[in-house]
Structures are given as structure tokens and as C-alpha cells.
Amino acid sequence: MLGVTDYPAFVVAFIIFLLIPGPGNLVLITSTTKGGIRGGFAAALGVILGDQVLSWMALAGLAAVLATSPVAFAAVQWLGAIYLFWLGAKMLLAKPGAAPVLNIKPYHYLRQALVITLLNPKAIVFYMAFFPLFVDPVQNRGLVTFAFLAATIAVLAFLYCVVAILLTHFLAERFRTNRYISFTLEKLAGLCLVGFGLRLALSR
Q: Which residues contact residue 120 at a Cβ distance below 8 angstroms, ignoring those fewer than 6 apart?
């Protein structure tokens, strides 16, 4: 199919990748909790745009450059680690009733989700290793094949985000009336972001 071998396996593998807990999932859930449906979809757009940038970078071979250049890879890794740590620390230090760390305006959610997604160098390497498994070297149509793979990723990511946003919003509505639960969940989210930042910084 358009130069893609075993397309159903590609779909299943990417869905599993989406389900793996990570900073992208966390920022999507946190944005929906704080900003409702609009905040969630704004963050979803940021995640999808970031994934598209990373996938095309991988297809263009930039991942190979990062993988063979320790300085470039380390720079992106440290930037991502610092940003995640800073965001998580702000959430941990926020006082009850303070303005949310993830800002109210939708474009803020989009920007933060985009930055978090782009500053994940492991995602670039993942795409670089992932795509060749499903590209048929004989029937490969070049740009058409790559565009088809990228479009599949965008559609699957969007469907996943819709489910995650609606489920998160449904649960958030039930927790929002309880300040203690909301406060605890915010601190847990902040702790997770700090943990992701530390893991990214130390996993070199």
C-alpha cells in the first residue's frame, strides 16, 4: 500500500507508542484538566504538530545527524530536560488557589505542548528506527510513501487525543469540586514532569 509494508502492524505499533506514558501524554491531560476541552485540543494540536516536525526530520535524515553528533543530541536533550524540570517545579511550588502554571489561553497550551514534544530527542531517534521497518524498498514511492506514513501518524494521534481529552474532561469535572483532589493531582503532575526532566537529563 503506497510503498508501505504490513500497514496494519504499523498502525498497531504506533498506537502502542501513543499509549506509553510520557511528557506528551502528561501535558495533554494537565491542559485538559486546567483549560477544559479547548485547552485539551490546543495542547493536542501542539503535540500533533510536534510529532509531524519530528517525523519529517527523521524521514529527512536529521535523526542520523543527531545520533552521530553527541554535542547536538546532548544540547537538545538538556534543553528538553531543563524545560520539563522548570515546568514541573513551578507546579510543585504553586500555592493553593494560585493561577494555573499551564496558562488559560489556548495558544499557551499549544505552545507548551509543542515545545515539550519537540524537545524530546528520543522521539526523533524512535521515528528514525521505526519508519524503515515498514517501508518497502522495492515499492517505495519516496515522498508519497513518507507523506502517507506521516498522515497516518497525524490521524492516529488526533483520534487518541480526542479520546484522552474527553475521558480526562469527564473525570476532571467530578474532581474539580474537591479542591484537595485537584491540588493533589496538580502536585502529582508536577512531580511527574520533574521526574521526566531528570530522567531525560540522566539517560545519556
A: 22, 23, 24, 54, 80, 200
In this structure, the number of other CB atoms found within 10 A of the CB of residue 151 comes to: 11
Query: Percentage of residues in the chain with pLDDT exceeding 90?
Result: 5
Express each pLDDT in 122-154 by its tens digit.
677 677 667 766 777 667 666 777 888 888 889
User: What Cα–Cα distance (Å) separates residue 103 from each residue in 47, 113, 155?
Assistant: 16, 12, 27
The C-alpha cell at 174 is 467530578
pTM of the model: 0.69
One-character DSSP codes across 132-165? GGGB-TTT--THHHHHHHHHHHHHHHHHHHHHHH
pLDDT at 104 over 60: no
Which grid coordinates belong to 56?
A: 519529517
Backbone angles phi, psi at 135, to 5 degrees: -100, 120
According to DSSP, the residues that pair with 93 across neighbouring strands are none
- Is the C-alpha dihedral spanning 29, 191, 126, 116 positive or negative? positive
How crowded is residue 5: how many other Cβ atoms within 10 Å of its Cβ? 15
In the chain, domain spans? 7-202
SS3 96: coil
83 closest CA partner among 100, 97, 66, 101: 101
